[in-house]
Amino acid sequence: MMGQLPATQNELFYDFCLERHIPNDHLLRQINQFLDFDIIRQHLKPFYSHMGRPSIDPELMIRMLMVGYCYGIRSERRLCEEVNFNLAYRWFCRLGLEDDIPDHSTFSKNRHGRYRDSDIFRFVFETVVQRCMDEDLVKGEGFAIDASLIKADVSRQRAVAGSDDIDWGPAATQSRPVREYLETLDDEETITTTPPKSISLTDPAARWTAAKGPAIFAYSTNYMIDVEYGIIMDVEATPAYRTAEVDSTKTLLERIEVNYQLKPERLMGDTAYGAASKLGYLVDQKGIEPHVPVWEKGTRSDDTYSHFDFTWIEEDKTYRCPQGNLLRTNGRVTKAETILHRSKKVDCDACPDKQKCCPKTDQRKIARSIYEHARNIARNISQSDIYERKTFHERKKVEMKFAHMKRHLRFERLRLRGITGASDEFILVATAQNLRKLARLCSQPPPSIG
Question: In this structure, is residue 57 part of a structural domain?
C-alpha cells in the first residue's frame, strides 16, 4: 500500500547528536585526526590584539577552507551556504545546529590582513607535511618535480600588448594585484629577457601563454613530491613561463632542506629541468643524482657531424675531430656559460669531411658547457636500468597529482588574483591533497559512542 507522512504535530524537543550522524569512514572524520590547531593558534596569536571584541575563531575559518578545497567548492559564498546546510560540514567545522555561519566577506578581510602577514596557509601546509613524515609516508630517497598551468581569473578583453606603455593610474586607485605587480617590476628575479606578448590590466602578473593549447593568462603551480606515496613536499607559485618554473627547483629543494632537514638522493623531472646550469646545481652544490633527460642542443638533422662525433680529451681539455685534428680554446667563458672550441681554418680547408662537418663556415666550432660533467652524469643515468625500470614511471606520480587536482578537486581556474593570491590557493589545494592521502592511508576509526 502507499505510504503517507504522519499528520501529527512535530515534536517540541529532540535528542540530536551530530557526532552520531557522521559515518566512521567519512572523509572529513578521517581528515580531522590529522589537524592540530593548538600549534596553529600559537602561530596566529601574535597577529591578534589582546584586547577588544573577540574575532571569529581562526580555526573555524581554516576548517571551512579545508572543506572547500577538499570538495571542490570554489566560491566562498557558496561554501558558507554548504556549511550551513550540510551536517558533516557543520560537524567538521565544530558548529552546532543553531550556530551561525560567518559571512563570506570575512574570508577576504582576513586573507588580505593577518592571514597573509602570518603566512598561515603555508604554516598549515608544513604542519600537514610534518604529520605525513611522522606517519612514515615520506621516504626522502627520491623526489619528482613538475609544473602545471592554472587559468588566471581575468578576461582576454582586458589586456594590452606587452610592448605598450601602460598608465596604471594613481596609486590610491590601483587594485591589489596591480600594486603587487608594480612593486616587483624592478626585482632582478622577475626581469625576463623577452617581454610578454600581452599583459592583463586586471592581473598583470598572470602570464600570457600557449604552452598547453589556445593562449590564456595563467599561473604555474610547481609541485615537488616524494615518490614513495606521492606526498607533496612543497609547492610554489610562479608566472606561467618555463624559466620561472625551472628556477623554482632551487627554491623548493632549499626550503624542504631547511624545514624538514631532508635532501633527496635523486630528483626526477622532464626535459625542461635538464638545462645545464640546473644539472650543475644538482650535482655540484646539492650532491643529488639528476634523473632528468638532458636538454640537448648539439644534435643535427642534416646528416652533418654533431658534437657527439667529436672526441673529448680530458687531459688536454679539448676536442678531437673525426679526422684527428684538435679544436683549440682560449678558455674564456661566454655569457651562456660555455667555452668555445674552434678548429684551425687550414685543417678544415684540407679536410675531406668538410662538407659533412662545417659546409657553411670556414671552421668548426663547438660550445662546451661549463657544467658538461653534470650533463654527462645525467646522460649516464638516463641510459641506466634504474631509469628505464623505475625513474620513468615514478616521475609520472607528480603528473597524477595535477590530474587529481583538476579533475576531482575541480581546480582549473583561480579565484584570487596576483602572485600572492595564486600562492594562497596553490598551498591550500596541496594541503587538501596531502590530507586526503593521510586519510586514505593512515586514518583510524573513532572510538564507539555509547
Answer: yes
Contact 27, 439 (CB under 8 A): yes
**Residue 203 maps to a domain:** no
Q: Is residue 100 part of a domain?
A: yes
Between CA 139 and CA 132 the distance in angstroms is 10
Fill in the DSSP letter of residue 325.
-
The sign of the CA dihedral 28, 29, 30, 31 is positive
How many angstroms separate the CA atoms of 371 and 284, rounded? 9
Contact 220, 245 (CB under 8 A): yes
pLDDT per position as a tens digit, 330-372: 889 889 889 999 999 888 988 988 888 888 888 899 989 999 9
pTM: 0.88
- Cα–Cα nearest to 319, from 276, 368, 266, 353: 368
CB 363 within 8 A of CB 344: yes
The answer to whether residue 150 sits within a structural domain is: no
Q: How many structural domains compose the chain?
A: 2
Of 101, 127, 153, the residue that ends a domain is 127
- Tens digits of residue pLDDT in 109-141: 777 777 787 889 999 999 999 999 999 999 999
Q: How far apart are CA 418 and CA 173, in angstroms?
A: 16
Per residue in 13-40, pLDDT tens? 666 777 888 888 899 999 998 988 888 8
Q: Where is the domain boundary, 96, 127, 158?
A: 127
The C-alpha atoms of residue 420 and residue 431 are separated, in whole angstroms, by 16
Domain hosting 63: range is: 18-127
